[in-house]
Amino acid sequence: MTTNRKPNEKIYISKTVTLPRLNRLSPSLEGTALKIMEESGELAQAIGKFRGLSGEQQRLEEEEAMLMVARELVDVAQTAVTMMFVLEEQYGIDLEVIMQEHITKLRHKGYCD
Ligand SMILES: [Mg+2]
Fold it and tell me: Ligand 1 centroid to 89 CA: how many Å?
């Protein structure tokens, strides 16, 4: 197996998330913040309740529960992306700058290369 990498080239592993601007809604900062909390709660429910972690009798099979976890996680990501659009469009925040600051912070903390 061959690669096109140079000998000392660093590999940055990342995941790119592309989610749509919800152009049929008129979200507000407060509305999207509440929606993030709502979806986070649904994610927590999928992780805990549906897997019977607190002794619940009705629980899902692990594979089904993990699919729910993944779906709720994407819901959280969608609401976060929606809030990013709100910050850009309604408050003039440059999310590209914020993203670069975020990556720099993670590297400074030693969480990634
Ligand atoms: Mg949901």
Answer: 25
